[in-house]
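Hi F.,

I've been meaning to write this up properly since the lab meeting, where we talked about keeping a consistent format for the predictions we share between groups. The idea is simple: the sequence comes first, exactly as it goes in, then the structure tokens exactly as they come out, then a line or two of notes. No screenshots and no reformatting. I'm using this chain as the first example so we have something concrete to point to.
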Amino acid sequence: MKGKLIIFSAPSGSGKSTLVNWLMREHPELSLAFSISCTSRPPRGTERHGVEYFFVTPEDFRDRISREEFLEYEEVYEGRYYGTLKEQVERQRESGQNVVFDVDVKGGVNIKRFYGDEAMSLFIQPPSVEELRRRLTGRATDAPDVIEQRLAKAEYELTFAPRFDHVIVNDDLEKAKAETLSLVEEFLKK
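Output, unedited:
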């Protein structure tokens, strides 16, 4: 049976990766597998082609864009692209995997638009921008100016929430986990 598609998007610091990683680790019965993205950046550390990413040159990435091979893509920095290949997603689905996307809000909206009811889109929302500021500051991984940039971007990204199938407000992690699991299980039964 062909796998289904589950899209997770959120502003940075909303807890999206925490929820996705928990779901993948604690619920193997759901047959979830990450979508393997394509990038034009070189591998880092022990990253391997076809495992963490498909690594291609910027020229090859642009050629694939012109051939419309991506569900979504973004040029994050000049010549530094990230995207989701249609062919890879279909390969994973044909093998029976339920494909999980951990993407930015624009990518999430584009994937949902392409697949319609075959995909479920979840927007993970922080309880407030103030709480998001507290979380980002508490991480102690970013300089104050970077935190301000992330917050400005988050305010913009929050405007995309109505375009998703479900919004999960992550004000209590255990509650957010339960809600996420319930929505995913329900979707996979359809």
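Notes:
The two ends are 12 Å apart (CA to CA).
Residues 173-189 form the longest helix (17 residues).

If this format works for you, I'll send the rest the same way.

G.
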